[in-house]
Amino acid sequence: MADVKDNQELSERIAHKFKMKNTTGYSLNALVDFDDPFEVIQHLMIGSEGTLGFIAEITYKTVVEHPFRASSLMIFPDIEKACKAVSLLKSAPVSAVELMDRAGLRSVEDQAGMPAYLNSLSHTACAILVETRATESEQLQFQIADIQKTVHGIPTEIPIEFTNDVTECALYWKIRKGLFPSVGAMRKTGTTVIIEDVAFPVPRLAEATLDLQSLFEKWGYHEAVIFGHALEGNLHFVFTQDFSTPAEIERYSSFMTDVANLVVSKYDGSLKAEHGTGRNMAPFVELEWGKEAFELMKRIKQIFDPKNLLNPGVILNNDSETHLKNLKPIPAASEKIDKCIECGFCEPNCVSAELTLTPRQRIVVYREKASLAKSGHEPHIAASLAKAYQYAGNETCATDGLCASACPVKIDTGKLIKTLRTEEIGNNQKNAVWIADRMAGTTAIVRTALSVVGLAHSVLGTPLMKGISGGVRKLSGNRIPLWNEFMPLGSKKIDISKGLKSANKVVYFPSCINRSMGVSQETKQDKQLSEKMLELLNKGGFEVIYPENLNALCCGMAFLSKGYTEAGLKKSNELETELLKSSENGKCPILCDMSPCLFTMKENMKSGLKLYEPVEFILEHLLPNLNIIPLEETITVFPVCSMKKMGLEDKLVELAQKCASKVIVPETNCCGFAGDRGFSYPELNKHGLRELKLQLSPDVKHGYSTSRTCEIGLSLHSGVSHQSIVYLVDRVSTPTI
Known about the structure:
Blueprint: H1 2-6, H2 8-17, H3 30-33, H4 37-45, E1 68-76, H5 79-89, E2 96-101, H6 102-108, E3 126-134, H7 137-150, H8 166-177, H9 179-185, E4 192-199, H10 205-219, E5 225-229, E6 234-241, H11 246-266, H12 285-289, H13 291-304, H14 359-375, H15 379-395, H16 402-406, H17 413-425, H18 430-436, H19 439-460, H20 462-475, E7 505-509, H21 512-516, H22 529-539, E8 543-545, H23 557-560, H24 565-582, E9 590-592, H25 595-604, E10 611-612, H26 614-622, E11 626-628, E12 631-637, H27 641-645, H28 649-659, E13 660-664, H29 677-680, H30 682-688, H31 692-695, E14 702-705, H32 708-718, E15 722-724, H33 725-732, E16 733-735
Parallel strand pairs: 7-8, 7-9, 9-10, 12-13, 12-14, 14-15
Antiparallel strand pairs: 1-3, 2-3, 2-5, 4-6, 5-6, 11-16
Helix pairs in contact: 5-10, 10-11, 14-15, 18-24, 19-20, 22-33, 28-33
């Protein structure tokens, strides 16, 4: 530390380098910014990428989240004008200014929901996404006016407009955040996507950006895009690279050398502005910092790690070609996941994250399995990996598809797992088809079994029943499903002769789950859902029509989720045929009482039927005919995965808020019950709802959802009995007539 402070030239060099964003090498600014050795060590450790020690705990100091914000996607004719706007906005009241070149915009312009004008922009157009935030609404308007005045003199392709609409702002940021994975998804199968992170002096940002684009052209990276945090002169550029041939590796080597020389020699910028140095930039650390600073970094490494045990070769590496070795391939494995660049955007939406594998990890391991199988090498490792993957990758995947909703290129890892299940079954689909052809008998058996178990529960009591069922499951090697106290009784057979006669008609398809499962012990004073649904529909003035052969019908979800595609599609087609008949070829609306079943029907049925799940049908068709007197109590509602995928999550909350004074919506993506998987793999359901009870206030006594099996898991792990939302609406409503 003293040596650095006594060396004026080196101190000035360090100070100059950290006037812009810089994470190349070690944080040498710690040696000139602090006198306390503890502070120096602490700041050297940050960003050291595990080469100086292990950080066990970090405390973040967060910034204020202002309640009012607005965004604008400004489109300029070229990069020069966009960067001129960036320079002017440095002094404006902005919280973010993100630059996106034309290639980047082109990579997302055809995605669903994107602004139509993106397709018609000029070849040289460049966008900056500007956001401003404030504590008061009036202040926000003043700031918007100030920003517009600041850039008023710069020509644009589209008039500059700000929006504070949450959905539109989210769309703008979706464009920005989706650039990296979108480019990766367009790459040729088998190639790797690479993202680099540099910084230039802001006054020279336009010139530097054009130079970068020239390098792309020179070395044939025509798909490369540029985006970044323009206010800091920080640019990310993304390109795809084939590492399968020496010629391609040589092209990459030449390109990276040119990039390093451009950033350092011409602009004295940073080769890494916020990402880690890693191995890819390790050969260029000395080029950026100079010999004296580089030797200082090596001294620091020697003090902390004299035997070079901690992450050797990262940040500092004497091999000038280390970035060309040990390259990570992304081999072709399955067309369902080949577009994945392993960005991890999907992970927060996965219920099995931190229990077994996330979607990204499932894909990584699956690729390794495919690679080992293709090479034929180390068959014992391949067999061991396949065995471990069976539980961690396959059996604990909820296949709920929520990963696709977070993925910029809509990769549904659940579809990969369903395909694996189908492959495991192979030609052995006959048993499932046999069951599918005898659906009425199957549901009758399930009803009887549930009633017998329910009787045992009432006789033995919950503690003894838990002990017996747990023991039986353990003895079976976890093959027998685990019982819990919220397991329902068997339902009664539906009497299709009951009900109101009316000009308003609806076809009601009670799912096979609700034709099998009745009320639970804690709600046995209620009627089963099929009866409650009939009463509510009649109360709303609708005559109920049941499909013919009702007891033999099924949407197919129960088969499809397990990989029995033949049986699943057979049942789906049979149901569609019957619904066409009973709805007079789609004239009448069709209501299914389970959201997951309705989602399956929408996915498979292409004949234009008007399909509804309970929430949407109640809001659109029943509420106009009902008087609602809201309950003065706090309730909770849980939007199941299928509701989220159908965009009905807010509709559920809207309906609940009409029926109760306070509604709590837990911050949980998926309950993990996954059809009937919660019985066979209860740890998945427990993990998915591990924080549910903490999110509910003690005064919550009732919970509502739209999936019978999910409601079992929700009741179990919240301590609050959950039922269909139909029960709530019926409870608070009276007919207007």
